[in-house]
Design goal:
The complex is a heterotrimer of chains A (288), B (374) and C (185). With 374 residues, chain B is an alpha/beta fold. Chain B has 13 helices and 16 strands. Chain C has 185 residues and is an alpha/beta fold. In chain C, helix 1 packs across helix 5, helix 1 crosses helix 6 and helix 4 packs across helix 7. Classes of the chains: A alpha/beta (288), B alpha/beta (374), C alpha/beta (185). Strand 2 of chain A pairs parallel with strand 10 of chain B.
């Protein structure tokens, strides 16, 4: 490949792990690009980033990024990230997760992370389906949509993830789609800079399963559809429930400041510590 | 805390042992009969500059512990039966990723919710293989408040040395019992090892066939990828490669099983000339010891073995100390778990089980009768 | 020499703390060995509560109690549950306001039991003005009657086991309890 035409974010990747396992047309690539873009805009030091993920296609992203990364169990990355952040509050801890990972098996950890307002940036790639296991419906699959476990259409109501996480106490919540890469980059920048629990819902396409099972022929068509269905949050707030039927509300759902959890712990340690050393950073390597 | 005498519960002793051993992170979830460990850590950890967090369940508690360990802390959690069941997912993850950590399980009557305020030893097999897959862990079994302190402190060093989850398998009796203990000013601490190599050449999972590698922390510049997938020496997923999987999982087991001689410990009394030996661990071992002493007073040649280490099973030590005895009575608060392990390693010996469930341990009288009747 | 003590009553009477104090007195101040265990139901208040203390001049193997040398009953229910286990020739201490004496007399006679009555709850109320120190009153009585721990050690253990600022009231309760023993059977 011509070096001069190499993607400018290639320097952040583990080149020895490429090519990646993502299908052609998957939204993960766009989201990785917007993540690096947002990180650079936020002027976050790449060396200081730890990526944590659960299980699923989106959770494979950290494995391709050349930073410390913890690929954990299904649904639980926020709990691992909580331990990382408390053990070293200086680190920028980012969680990559998906709709199945964060909203189904990990739903409890998601709302408790938000409730604590711990300084994590959670990027939830919501493609409304389980890709890795072959196209089963998820808690965000639209009612009536098809999946291999909903051959007659999904009967359940989907979660509105951004509203859920906002209600649980997150201090920054926004939703954009892979068809809004500029907005998504900006949102990731804000999420990284927010001192508190930040939730970025990146609505994405899974052409291989969601597209195929729901008669959308190509990733391009899926992205067009996402763009068409999108209504800005500000505008959506003026619309009735029936007017919003079939629409995808995008924009910021929450952007406020509130005391952050790891900060509160640091202050507690400063207050209660009797050893004169209110931090145990890297203490596992010490002899006493 | 100076070297002092205390009259405290086993649970409190676990917490103090952990703190002395350098534990600076605890994540847990309230559950009887182990809650006092979490409560003590909530009080004492901040005083030592460490963090305590009450998580939303036991799954996330162990997840947070693993995250903290990879970020350079020594960390633990504590639980009982139902919580131990929930933790199995992350015990497997810790075994696969070779994350050193300590779990205290104060066992209660089970299955399911069972008997929250009563004792049992019915999680012993679960402690070995409760998570899916082939793996090995280390499990210690304290029988006194002093051992709760000593074994928990030791568990941290074993965890570091073998890069493995170490379980302190107590029970409601030792967890809630109060006894005098001596807490030394300092205990031996085995620090975690940073690699000698720099980030350019270090491979986080390059290890000898029966060993482990050094372990840097997140933020040290090593840019590790840690995954529960089958991984190669670089830590990269290589899940469809039979050879990678076989080498990795064999090593995870061999680094413990083939080091049994240096890990496992037992205590014994009067075994040399014994015809019949009472073998036990944890709280009922004290009953067994009393029974053996009573038997000796009645001129019965009885001996006593207590397993300090239950996993890896101290095969050679048990064979050695029972070689002159024709009969062994296994005393445990369950319907037979370690019993089958003893039978396996002593095929020539008459091994019988004296089980007990319901929440109380075997009385010395019950054990003495079994010693006489076997 | 091993002494097995069982104290039983209902939740809220401070039964378990009584066991802890006696255990502390023996283990930390008399330089003996002691083990304290307890059992309780899910109720924080009102349910059955029991504590056992083993005190010995040598290391204690079996930490539980089958047949106590000393039984202290602070409720009728506790008495009924545990009286039969008391060793022949053992010591029985009851709170006579909780337990009618005639309920125990046949057993006492038959098994040569030394019976003591210590109205701990009434004494706590009337002498100290605080019903909740009934357990400390009982510790005073147990200490003077049975001499399982020295009185100085028991006082130290009381003082270090009660909430800061309440030491004087509790030590007064201890003395009032000890004085009950001087009254005899």
């Amino acid at each position: 490949m011509d070096k001069t035409r190499e993607n400018r974010f290639m320097k952040y990747l583990r080149k020895d792990r490429l090519p990646n396992i993502f299908c052609a047309g998957c939204g993960n690539g766009i989201i990785m690009n917007t993540f690096f873009n947002g990180m650079e805009m936020a002027e976050i030091d790449f060396e200081n980033i730890v990526l944590v993920s659960g299980i699923g296609c989106s959770s494979r992203i950290p494995g391709y990024v050349k930073c410390d990364s913890l690929h954990t169990t299904h649904g639980r990355p926020i709990s691992f990230a909580t331990g990382i952040k408390l053990a070293n509050p200086e680190l920028d801890v980012v969680v990559f997760t998906g709709d199945g990972d964060a909203a189904a098996i990990g739903g409890n950890h998601l709302i408790h992370g938000a409730r604590r307002n711990i300084d994590l940036t959670v990027i939830c790639i919501n493609n409304s389906i389980y890709g890795m296991t072959g196209g089963q419906i998820s808690p965000t699959s639209p009612k009536g949509s098809y999946g291999s476990t909903a051959p007659y259409g999904a009967l359940e109501n989907p979660f509105n993830l951004s509203e859920l996480v906002k209600a649980a106490g997150a201090t920054y919540v926004a939703r954009w789609t892979t068809a809004h890469p500029v907005q998504l980059s900006n949102t990731i920048k804000k999420a990284l800079l927010n001192k508190g629990f930040s939730f970025v819902e990146a609505v994405s396409q899974c052409p291989t399963y969601f597209g195929r099972k729901n008669r959308m022929k190509s990733p391009i068509e899926m992205m067009h559809r996402m763009k068409e269905e999108s209504v800005l949050k500000r505008k959506a707030d003026q619309l009735t429930e029936s007017e919003l039927e079939g629409k995808l509300v995008v924009g910021e759902f929450q952007n406020k400041t509130a005391p952050e959890f790891s900060d509160k712990i640091c202050r507690l340690l400063e207050d209660k510590c009797v050893t004169g050393k209110p931090s145990s950073l890297k203490s596992a390597y010490q002899e006493d | 805390m100076k070297a002092e005498k205390y009259f405290i519960q086993g649970n409190e002793a676990c917490a103090r042992g952990a703190l002395k051993a350098g534990c600076r992170f605890f994540a847990g979830y309230p559950i009887t009969p182990s809650t006092e460990i979490a409560e003590d850590m909530a009080v004492f950890l901040p005083r030592e500059g460490g963090s305590f967090i009450q998580m939303e369940d036991e799954i996330s508690a162990l997840g947070a512990v693993i995250g903290a360990v990879w970020t350079g802390l020594k960390a633990m959690t504590a639980t009982s039966g139902p919580g131990f069941s929930l933790m199995q997912e992350h015990i497997g993850y810790a075994a696969m990723t070779e994350t050193p950590l300590v779990i205290v399980n104060m066992q209660r009557g089970s299955p399911s919710t069972g008997q929250p305020t009563m004792a049992s030893q019915s999680d012993m097999m679960q402690s070995r293989w409760g998570s899916h897959g082939d793996y090995e862990i280390i499990a210690l079994s304290p029988s006194s408040v002093q051992e709760c302190f000593d074994f928990t402190a030791e568990a941290f060093n074993l965890a570091e040395k073998y890069r493995v989850p170490v379980m302190v398998m107590g029970d409601e009796i030792v967890g809630h019992m109060r006894e005098k203990i001596i807490i030394p000013d300092k205990v031996e601490i085995l620090p975690r090892q940073m690699p000698k190599e720099g980030p350019e050449t270090f491979l986080p999972y390059q290890a000898p066939p029966e060993g482990t590698s050094a372990m840097p922390a997140f933020g040290d510049g090593y840019k590790m990828h840690i995954t529960g997938l089958t991984h190669d020496e670089r830590g990269y997923p290589d899940a469809s490669n039979p050879q990678t999987h076989s080498e990795l999982v064999n090593r995870l087991c061999d680094k413990i099983l083939k080091k049994t001689a240096e890990i496992a410990r037992i205590q014994e009394e009067s075994t040399a000339d014994a015809d019949v030996i009472a073998l036990s661990y944890g709280a009922p071992s004290r009953s067994a010891l009393k029974a053996v002493r009573n038997a000796r007073n009645q001129d019965i040649k009885a001996g006593f073995i207590k397993l300090d280490t239950v996993w890896p099973f101290p095969e050679e030590l048990v064979r050695e100390t029972t070689k002159n005895a024709g009969k062994v009575v296994v005393v445990e608060m369950n319907l037979g778990q370690i019993f089958y392990e003893v039978q396996r390693v002593l095929p020539e010996v008459k091994v019988e089980l004296l089980p007990k469930i319901g929440g109380e341990m075997q009385s010395p009288q019950e054990i003495l009768e079994k010693i006489k009747s076997i | 020499m091993r002494k097995d003590i069982r104290i039983a009553g209902f939740g809220g009477q401070g039964i378990i703390l009584a066991g802890i104090v006696i255990g502390k007195a023996a283990a930390l101040h008399d330089d003996m060995f002691a083990v304290q265990t307890q059992s309780y139901g899910p109720e924080a208040r009102g349910g059955a509560s029991k504590t056992e203390v083993v005190i010995s001049d040598e290391e204690i193997d079996y930490p539980k109690i089958e047949n106590p040398d000393i039984l202290v009953a602070m409720s009728h229910e506790a008495l009924m549950a545990y009286l039969d286990d008391l060793k022949d020739g053992g010591i029985l201490i009851i709170d006579p306001d909780m337990i009618p004496e005639e309920d125990v007399l046949p057993f006492v006679k038959e098994h040569n039991i030394k019976l003591y009555k210590a109205p701990a709850t009434r004494t706590a109320d009337e002498k100290i003005g605080l019903k909740i120190v009934a357990n400390i009153v009982m510790i005073g009585a147990i200490t003077r009657i049975t001499k399982v721990v020295s009185e100085d050690s028991a006082r130290k253990a009381v003082a270090e086991s009660v909430p800061p600022g309440t030491e004087d009231k509790n030590l007064a309760a201890f003395e009032a309890g000890a004085a009950l023993a001087d009254g005899g059977v």
